[in-house]
């Protein structure tokens, strides 16, 4: 009898540890978490954080060193066959069956999972149509692009109507259009009550899709909360973003004065960074900032407390330098900031 | 069911009994492999039969005709070629496919994630490969009839034993292939084949009967460690017609069956374990 959490949670992980043979440290290091039914749950972290290993354990092809994990109330180590009936996996690497045609990839997958013949034909044609693959049903895979192959993998995963869908870095290497398509499909799955667990190192993706996010690093679980809750972890969480344009005259004149090596960017970095309350300053790198003269510069200021004063004094610095203030606003912390706060490192470093 | 209803329908999961789910998955995987085999039938047949064709032509036809081999040689040779074809085909089948799947395309993952024990995925590969090897061996007979003409001499009164023995040889070859696939990364496979296959073929009593090796005792003993020796000798036992009322001298059929069964059980057990270790980390 499972009257406990297992019955109400889609996934329960308790003190999960995985150490690979001859490894220096644990790939997954004492992780405990639950995923609710119907939740879209993100595992966020850099490469080597242990996300894929965690997914590997939950999908039965990696055995934990210690701890336990259940999917749909089924212990993945004690009853892998029961667990495999309940899950579907969209892996990081294309593992589509190259000997079969697109339609067959779906129907054979469903057959492995015991879907009746008539039902699997109906589901395959419905999913192929829904995913814009109807015309490719009879094609071999060699003809498909990476984005389309990803669609086939997702369609295949849905053929046996899994209780929990795992996606490992689903949008890695996808073009923006394919990414949007996937995000749309994942939201539709949520409507249908499918529990989705995805790993990603894409902040935007995690922020947009996931109801809750577990931040992992070096096998450990650093934080687990809603995206909003995670952002509240950043202390003195005020950030000011400002964009300005240094007029040509100013750029030229000051450049001579300060010597050719130092441009307006450095000068503003110094004067803004020295404002009282500013703990850190970062240049904003984007298209607008690199688009040639008249130079548009962007900065992000991290402030400790009195943000109101900072807003005024930052504006004064810009005006005092005869630069044109283009934009000045408070920015909420991003998940990237949360990660930097938790680890002291950038996610993609 | 329309696309609309599928997209909006709430999912409700129904679990099935594990044993039933495993059986269903196993049969579906067999169907998948049968489909793929059928599609590649011509390529496979050419691959499997090119070697026996040339063996039969050169050793069975050319050499006796030019006097380099005695006229009766083809009768001794044919059972060896059947054994070799079955054995090598089955050995290469799972090893090449599995090594490619495990190391490169990962396309077997969908079957590993199907609701059946990992061991059954390996066993299925083995059975399908054995089936293909058996068919290849069966095709050698019409091929030999065509190439050897009048020299084609096979007794038919032990047909039942012959077929059973071919099945057993196919199973042994497939099990050895499974072991090779599980231990060898794909980059090493050509090397493994060079190191394993060539000695296996030439110490396997394929082109000479075991009893005739009495003159080179150490080599005769060495050949007893090669499963192909038992396969070839068993084929001779069931295929060579008695001359002047005397059956050909071969290894006893009891020893043949015992050795092949032992090799099968050993390689099956080892292969499945190694396969499991390779795919579940």
Q: Overview of this structure, please?
A:
The complex is a heterodimer of chains A (349) and B (281). Chain A is of the alpha/beta class. Chain A folds into two domains: 5-231, P-loop containing nucleotide triphosphate hydrolases (Rossmann fold, 3-Layer(aba) Sandwich); 238-332, 2-Layer Sandwich (Alpha-Beta Plaits). Chain A has 13 helices and 14 strands. In chain A, a hairpin with a 2-residue loop joins β4 and β5. In chain A, α4 packs across α5 and α4 packs parallel to α6. Chain A is elongated, with a radius of gyration of 25 Å. Chain B is mostly helical and 281 residues long. Chain B contains eleven helices and no strands. Chain B has helices at 3-8, 18-39, 41-66, 73-105, 109-112, 118-148, 159-183, 189-202, 217-223, 227-239, 253-279. Chain B is elongated. The two termini of chain B are 40 Å apart. Classes of the chains: A alpha/beta (349), B mainly alpha (281).
List keywords for this structure.
heterodimer, A: 349 residues, alpha/beta, Rossmann fold, Alpha-Beta Plaits, 2 domains, 6-stranded mixed β-sheet, 14 strands, elongated, B: mainly alpha, 11 helices
Task: Give me a quick take on this structure.
Helix content of chain A is 37%, strand content 26%. Chain A is built from 13 helices and 14 strands.
